[in-house]
Write a structure and sequence with these properties.
The complex is a heterodimer of chains A (about 550) and B (about 290). Chain A has 17 helices and 24 strands. Chain A is of the alpha/beta class and about 550 residues long. Chain B folds into 2 domains: about 180 residues, P-loop containing nucleotide triphosphate hydrolases (Rossmann fold, 3-Layer(aba) Sandwich), CATH 3.40.50; about 100 residues, Hypothetical Protein Yjia, Chain: A,domain 2. Classes of the chains: A alpha/beta (about 550), B alpha/beta (about 290).
């Protein structure tokens, strides 16, 4: 019989209605043996009391149901975004509010780089900067000889300096869509969309699949999660190949690796049979800390990029309706095949026409083959209204809504995409619960930073960057929001039997907090300090 | 490295893209193709022609390779260019809903690639319904509008000619009327232009070589007046000052770029049913007058 450790905390929020609060939790073999007071495990024999967490508040380890492994790997590049951001090592990178600051940061780092190494930045977003567009001229001040590349936060654009343009031969003669030219007829340095960016990425070795498959990238992802109090995280469009699987198994199996990773296989174009074979292979290779077997489908684009498929009356600026990344016919084919094969689907739906097509497709799939408890998940679901949530509930679908959008893009949605009336009901968490849907909320990191307590704050307060409260009728209470980032998200991953609450028999995964999220003012939820996590009974403070 | 031509085959689900690729793989074109497909299982290769097969690559005894592109098409293009030796030609089967222009544009951007054209396969039976479908009509029509050539399957081109003409000025090839698709898709016009390689009877090959020189404006006008039915035209045209231009025509797309051209040499192919060498000669002589 292995040792029993009893952790003492200032308070434990269990998320278990049978015992909502406790002060002690007993752990054996990585699982929760008992919950209650100091004597909770005495019936089980000798215990060791551990008071290192006595001044902290414990919650179930937080669950991020929609994020991407790249959230760790991307930090090997230099952050140049508008918002403050914390890297996997805990270093705060202050947000850059003008182009001069971007140039200054890059120039400072350039001096210490070895000869020949490119300088690559990420996270830049001109939507927040009221100034000239970033151009070759700015980046030439960073270096006239070393290639300098800045990836924009949406990964659809980049800006490069003259040395990088020379490397790929972009000049006055170049006539390529996406290579932006200035009034002088020369490239400005801004490159739009993958085709124009590809020659640069190829020569700089910017390869996102390769990046995320590396050991350091996986460890960086674990650090990002650890700092956010997250003990179970998805990689929600995994492009994993068989050799990556072995590497990921090896890295995650280390006893010091404090994270359960749920890679969800991205589906793009391949036949259902091929995908089913691959995902079943992945499922068979699942381990305690690596859970596979689900797939991710794409449907439409993004609302802020005007590429989401929306219902009448469309975008307020009169932009044409968005695009399908997977044709509705193919969505129906996939839904029917995966449902029949018992493969859980996480389906990207931003616009309400996309969510409608998917709900129809799943309803159709369910007439062909019964499968109670499938828990297919509509991901983002940003425009879903009460009618769609009711249908989703009828079909047993869960939803994982993009609450962080309210803060980061809410003002843009009011002014540029949906208008105030429909923006008010975006990411309609209240409607989802009222309709009876299982609910999770997410960050989509690295699109927005991983931080379930911040995500919960967004769902509770619905504040935009300008301070506007967008759609207060859709706000969650704090307990509901905490449920969404623990048991709610665990449910969407078929893991609620193991994680998501602190109760006997579950994994000993905890978020270690410096304050009590149920005791602070609701608008201070995002400021509750995350001190680290406990994973399988091992303490990992940041 | 010598730039590798990249050709994109577009068209909606079920239009006949895979059938076209199976035809291409079965033809004797003499090139080491690298073909990226969506649905590996639908590729149909005679076992006798198969050298090896693994999870995501089929290698043929003639040196052609067929592979899946995975979720990241551009990564796969990078991998294709990194092969040693590189392929003679890359052919990409776009997904049923893809914007082929966004893919083919990489051939203009990447110095190691050369634009090989966009070929959109149109299913004559279903095109009209798809084209007016409120959900996907705009994307289907964009695939047609972006095409350099339109390839009609599953029926006669005359059934859809009117609808296609409102969307695109690209030449239309009825796939049922030719037994060879490689000359059109790959544009190996130099090979066809050589006397040793008599063109397939479905095609005509026309060529010229002379000391003729012309201005860029004259060249532009000349190419704009080319006979309908010229699918591919390629070569060099000399300028008066000693420089010149490289010329390439793929269906409706004409590209002219500065090049060192001492002589004027052009080769063209078209479908014998639509154009003949006499018409080509007449065009060439008329514009030189």
């Amino acid at each position: 019989m292995s040792e029993i450790t009893v952790f003492k905390a200032k308070s434990i929020i269990t998320m278990d209605p049978n015992l909502p609060r406790a002060t002690h939790v007993a752990v054996q073999d990585g699982r929760i043996l008992a919950v209650g007071g100091a004597n909770c495990a005495n019936a089980w024999g000798a215990v060791r009391h551990d008071d290192t967490l006595a001044e902290t508040v414990l919650m179930p380890g937080l669950v991020e149901g929609h994020a991407h492994m790249m959230a760790g790997a991307i930090w090997q590049y230099i952050y140049t975004g508008f918002h403050d951001r914390i890297d996997p090592d805990g270093v705060l990178w202050p947000g850059l509010s003008d182009l001069e600051s971007v140039v200054d940061r890059l120039a400072g780092i350039e001096q210490d780089l070895p000869d020949g190494a490119p300088l690559i930045g990420w996270g830049f977003d001109p939507i927040f900067l009221a100034s000239d567009r970033l151009s070759r001229a700015h980046l030439d001040r960073v270096s006239s000889t070393r290639p300098v590349v800045i990836l924009f936060s949406n990964f659809h654009l980049m800006c490069v300096n003259s040395a990088a343009l020379d490397l790929v031969g972009y000049d006055r003669e170049t006539n390529v869509e996406g290579v932006v030219k200035g009034s002088d007829g020369r490239p400005t340095g801004e490159l739009q969309e993958m085709a124009a960016m590809f020659p640069i990425m190829r020569r700089m070795g910017i390869d996102f699949r390769g990046l995320t498959a590396r050991d350091e990238a996986v460890r960086a992802y674990a650090s990002v999660a650890n700092r956010a109090g997250v003990t179970t995280v998805t990689d929600l469009f995994s492009q994993m190949e068989n050799e990556d699987l072995e590497a990921l198994k090896r890295v995650t199996s280390g006893s010091d690796f404090p994270l359960r990773v749920v890679p969800v296989l991205g589906v793009m174009g391949a036949s259902p049979d091929e995908i089913i074979t691959q995902v079943q292979h992945m499922r068979r290779n699942s381990t305690e800390k690596l859970r596979m077997g689900a797939v991710k489908l794409m449907t439409d684009g993004s609302i802020q990029g005007w590429t989401a498929r929306v219902k009448w009356p469309g975008y307020v600026g009169g932009q044409p309706n968005g695009i399908w990344n997977t044709a509705p016919d193919q969505i129906r084919t996939y839904c029917t095949a995966f449902h029949a094969a018992g493969v859980q689907m996480h389906i990207h739906v931003n616009g309400d026409q996309a969510s409608e097509v998917v709900i129809d497709a799943l309803a159709e799939a369910m007439t062909h083959s019964p499968w109670r408890g499938h828990r297919h998940v509509l991901q983002h679901g940003q425009m879903m209204g009460m009618d769609q949530f009711r249908r989703a509930a009828d079909l047993g679908l869960a939803v994982n809504l993009f609450a962080n959008h309210i803060w980061y893009f809410g003002d843009q949605h009011v002014e540029l995409t949906m208008g105030e009336d429909r923006a008010r009901r975006m990411d309609a968490t209240r409607s989802a619960l009222d309709a009876g849907c299982a609910l999770a909320i997410h960050s989509d990191a690295p699109v927005t930073p991983m931080g379930p307590l911040f995500t919960a704050w967004c769902a509770v307060n619905r504040r935009t960057m300008s301070g506007h409260v967008l759609g207060p009728a859709q706000a969650l209470t704090v307990p509901e929001a905490l449920h969404a980032i623990t048991l709610g998200a665990a449910y969407t991953l078929h893991l609620d039997a193991e994680i998501g609450s602190i109760e006997t028999g579950k994994r000993a995964d905890f978020a270690v907090l410096g304050d009590d999220p149920l005791a602070v003012a609701p608008d201070a939820l995002k400021d509750v300090p995350v001190l680290g996590t406990v994973f399988g009974g091992l303490v990992h403070l940041v | 490295m010598t730039p590798v031509p990249l050709t994109v085959i577009a068209g909606y689900l079920g239009a006949g893209k895979t059938t076209l690729i199976n035809r291409l793989l079965a033809e004797d074109h003499g090139q080491k193709l690298l073909i990226m497909v969506n649905d590996f299982g639908a590729i149909n290769i005679d076992a006798a022609l198969l050298a090896s097969a693994d999870q995501d690559t089929l290698t043929l005894t003639n040196g052609c390779v067929c592979c899946t592109m995975g979720a990241d098409l551009f990564l796969a293009v990078g991998d294709a260019l990194d092969r040693r030796p590189p392929p003679d030609h890359i052919v990409i089967e776009a997904s049923g809903i893809a914007d082929p222009g966004k893919i083919a544009n990489v051939a203009n951007a990447e110095p190691d690639l050369r634009y090989g054209g966009i070929f959109t396969v149109v299913d004559a039976l279903h095109f009209t319904a798809l084209s007016t479908d409120p959900m996907i009509g705009p994307q289907i029509n964009a695939q047609v509008a972006q095409a350099d050539m339109l390839l009609v399957s599953k029926g006669s081109a005359t059934q859809v000619a009117g609808a296609l003409a409102t969307l695109s000025g690209a030449p239309v090839l009825d796939l049922a009327l030719t037994t060879q698709v490689a000359p059109t898709l790959l544009g190996d016009v130099e090979r066809l232009g050589q006397a040793a390689h008599a063109p397939h009877p479905d095609y005509i090959a026309w060529s010229t070589a002379s000391d003729v020189h012309m201005t860029r404006d004259a060249l532009t006008a000349l190419l704009a007046a080319r006979p309908a039915g010229v699918f591919r035209l390629k070569g060099f045209v000399a300028a008066l000052d000693g420089g010149g231009w490289a010329v390439q025509v793929v269906g409706r797309t004409v590209s002219i770029s500065p090049a060192d051209a001492r002589r004027t040499q052009l080769v063209a192919i078209g479908l014998a049913a639509q154009v003949d060498t006499a018409a080509m000669d007449q065009w060439w002589r008329a514009t030189l007058r």
